[in-house]
């Protein structure tokens, strides 16, 4: 693996994102909706940095199957949502790839009565976007590579890595076994990456 973002870089990025959300939302009530399962670590860390009355809910979305590294059919489950009628919503996802998942979810949240929907992602792949929208808050722009760690997985594995790493193609196709998180972290090589500048819709 190659390290894309260290623990310190991720923490700094989340501090910045939380400050931007706090600046825009102030102390007004906010409903944070996380996209399962990749955003669970991000949501947990982000919540601890936000102030004011916050309600939390989750939705389930998936466009990957098994060991696939390219998205396929999008499946959504919205039965875990709280009542969004008249609520200001912050939709949180781990990565903005083609953008189709976030676009579909924003439309669904409005259909469920949300007064407003802002979107926040930790990672964005500018070269992969297929929709005419941008997240309101973006942590980092990254290259078009398959990444794991900090909640992101490959075939159910690697979510527990404390850093975000580019998965080697030999690992992605299953030809190499799965070392432990500690073993993987020990062998990671670092790559430079810079914070993104979000372009609000």
Summarize the structure.
Helices cover 24% and strands 26% of the residues. By secondary structure, the chain is an alpha/beta fold. Helix 2 links the parallel strand 2 and strand 3.
Shape: globular
Give the biggest sheet: 6 strands, mixed
Counting H and I runs of at least 4 residues, what is the number of helices? Answer: 5
CATH classification class of the domain at 7-143: Alpha Beta
Descriptive notes:
The chain has 201 residues and is α/β, with parallel strands linked by helices. The chain has a domain at 7-143: 3-Layer(aba) Sandwich (Rossmann fold). The chain has helices at 7-25, 40-47, 100-111, 169-172, 181-186, and strands at residues 2-5, 30-36, 54-62, 75-77, 88-96, 116-124, 137-141, 147-148, 164-166, 189-190. A six-stranded mixed beta sheet has the order 4-3-2-5-6-7, with helices on both faces. Helix 3 (100-111) links the parallel strand 5 (88-96) and strand 6. Helix 1 crosses helix 2. The longest helix is centred in the N-terminal third of the chain and has 19 residues, at 7-25. The radius of gyration is 16 Å and the shape is globular. Mean pLDDT is 85; it is low at 65-69 and 174-187.
What is the fold's blueprint, element by element?
Layout: E1 2-5, H1 7-25, E2 30-36, H2 40-47, E3 54-62, E4 75-77, E5 88-96, H3 100-111, E6 116-124, E7 137-141, E8 147-148, E9 164-166, H4 169-172, H5 181-186, E10 189-190
Parallel strand pairs: 1-10, 2-3, 2-5, 5-6, 6-7
Antiparallel strand pairs: 1-9, 3-4, 8-9
